[in-house]
Amino acid sequence: MLTRKSKYGLKALLVLAEDADRGPVLISELAERQRLPKKFLEAILLELKRAGLLHSKKGKGGGYVLGRKPTEITVGQVIRVLEGPLALTPCVSQTAYRRCEECPDEAACGVRLAMKEVRDATARILDNTTLAGLNARVARAGARPEPGRGAPVRARRARKKPLAI
Fold first, then answer.
1. Does residue 152 belong to any structural domain of this protein?
2. Three-state secondary-structure class, residue 21
3. pTM for the model
4. Residue 63 maps to which CATH number?
C-alpha cells in the first residue's frame, strides 16, 4: 500500500512539475493547494532534496523547484527515495536483496517466484511513469472525479412545454 508519505510527496512533485516554468514554490503554497499537512510536507521535501529530486532557494522568491525535468523524474524513483525498495520481500529486491532465512531453495520457492513477478510488473509501471506523463494524463482526463467519488450529478429539469394561447 502506498503510504501517506509517498502520496504527499508525489502530489507535491506533480504541482512542481506542472509549475516547472514558474520558478520556486513555497511549502505553504504546496501544502495549501494539495491540502497537505505543512510540517509533514517539509520533512518529505527535505528527503527529496537530499536525493537530488528537488532544489530549494532561500529568501525572497524562494521555495522548491524540481532538480530535474518533469520528464526525467519517475514515480518509481520517488517511492524508492521515500519508502525504499519496491519489492514486497527482500529476496527479490534489486536494491536491498537479503536471502530469507527459512528458505532452503530460492529457485524453487513459490512465494519468491510470485513476488518477483509482482516486483517486475510494479517496477515496469512505476519506472515508466514520469511526473510529466502523469500530469498529461490528468489534463486529458479533465481532472474529473471518479464515478461515485465526486460531486453528485444534478438531475436535469424537465423542460416546460410552451403554453398554447
1. no
2. coil
3. 0.80
4. 1.10.10.10
